[in-house]
Amino acid sequence: MLFLMAAGLTLIFGVMGLINLAHGSLFMIGAFACATVAAATGSFWLGLVASLAAAAAAGALVEILVIRRLYERDHLDQVLATFALILIFSEGTRWVFGSFPLYLDIPQLLSGAVHLPGGAQYPVYRLAVIGVGIAVAIGLYLLIGKTRLGMRIRAGESDREMIGALGIDIGTLYTLVFALGAALAGLAGAMVGALQSVQVGMGEPVLILAFVVIVIGGIGSIKGALIGSVLVGLTETLGRFLLPHLFGLFMPPSDAATVGAALASMLIYIVMALILAFRPRGLFAASA
Amino acid sequence: MRNILAASLLALSAGLAGNAFAEPVKIGMITTLSGGGAGLGIDARDGFMLAIKQSGNSEIEVVTEDDAQKPELAVQIADKMVQSDKVDLMTGIIWSNLAMAVVPAVTAQDIIYLSVNAGPSALAGAGCGPNYFNVAYQNDNFHEAMGEAANKDYKKTFIMAPNYPAGKDSLTGFKRYYKGELAGEVYTKLGQTDYAAEIAQIRASGADSVFIFLPGGMGIAFTKQYAQSGVGLPLLGPAFSFSQDVLPAIGDAALGVKNTASWAPDLDNAANKAFVDGFKAEYGRLPSVYAAQAYDTANLILSAAAKASVKDKDAFRAALKEAQFDSVRGKFSFNTNNHPIQDFYVREVVKDGDTLTNKIVGTAFTDHKDAYAAECKM
């Protein structure tokens, strides 16, 4: 799910050269749309469709109204404007839905746990999320690498003016890319919303992680986003699990738990710093 | 942002003039109204304002501001309220790390602070003071009650809390009364939303029950993921993990979970009935334990203000200490460290029609005092 988020972000950042801090808000919109529609219709699947549609629509709207004016500006202006969007989206959502978390449950089909070979149990829903992540990765690879639209996106990435001169409507193309990135964020939001709580501000912690992922993976690279998200996910989870045990070898258990937990939350940033020290452009820097 | 909720309710007729205060009271309320923890703050604010409204008193002014669950912001707001709003009393903070940042500073300036929720151990023991009244509990209390209640059924519990002052107090409190063995003790990041690693640890630990202290969105995330994981061990917790503000979002995954609190919606006394009915009528939802504590705080202030002028700090402190008000918790009195002496109940999450709510199933402690009162030299 981190991959979905990071893929959308890296697509926008790489192709359009735009820092979009409001990506977390699109994630939140996806989750709220899914929770609302699922509550109204009783179907998680309709909610999922709604989350894609709502996030894509919000993304397109934001692109046309705000972002379009920012391409020529520097990154500081983009950061300021999209940060403002975060605040607007958060307060707007609070205004419409209130401050209390919404209820969104996973569909019957995907609830429960399965036995994996080796005796471990694993929740079906998490398997499904991994499945969706892989499907989106393949889909994006095919879209970017094999289709005409993908060719245009890649062309727009390397030379914005040239592709405009070739008679392609660059404005529409950018709106489309932005909406695609937004839809991925919305999909991630809807799927995570069923695991966590659907509430205002749920997007920001994920946004920070997503930025770490794209920096590690190399800005603008979908492959980098995939590898980066797996790396960050593994580092965080294993760190949280193993570090307290490691410190437990030479410390009293309660101190070990505290130190281990503190260090585990720093671990992904330490990993990021190390990777940047050796590969300043990330693991899979997009050729620019 | 700034929201002066002047209690501009029609003053009751002159017939009630005997209730008029010696001096109007201005209360500064800092609470969490935005971000992930907003549900708690909004419930506290609504409970507090309900009591003021029901009293029909027009001489109380409440200045409410949002701390966004950020200590640095809470400190700024507190400075502003003391210096430019010139408030007489302060209240409202939900989170213990924010309380630690604000309370010592404002009480040192001779402002009386009444806590509606946070009760860090540092302020109950050596750091206690005459200007600090906790109307809610000392942080350890709910957890102590669960530790005591768990002795009956469980021998090996896995315990987990976020890494912040209240989280530490929580597990300390649980361990103080729990006699069984611990299958594991884990501190998680505050605000964490993915618990896959912790659930794997629980599964591997060989525990017979799981005690969690995860307020707000953290509890929602954990309980849902835990239900899906198929671990299936009984869940225990303080009321914060399964309070009315999060139950609708957790859904049926919370059914049957045991939790402990000083209050429940079905607690049988007249004040509680008036509170629960009034809250439902005013806001269209069931109140949580945060709302109940804030409601009591407001009624305590009203009772003291009817007896003494808020400008006469000594008399006002004495009036607060008497705690002569109808608490929704039944009986309520202050210990020597200005923390409550009260009963603690075991509650179970049940389905009442379509709504999930908590029902009292037993009593864990009667007239319980916190463990730090002896360290308080006042």
UniProtKB/TrEMBL annotation, chain B:
Descriptive protein name: Extracellular ligand-binding receptor
GO BP term, pick one: amino acid transport
Keywords: Amino-acid transport, Receptor, Signal, Transport
The UniProt record lists the keyword Zinc: no
Iron listed as a keyword: no
Family listed: Belongs to the leucine-binding protein family.
InterPro entries xrefs: BCAA_transport, Leu-bd, Peripla_BP_I
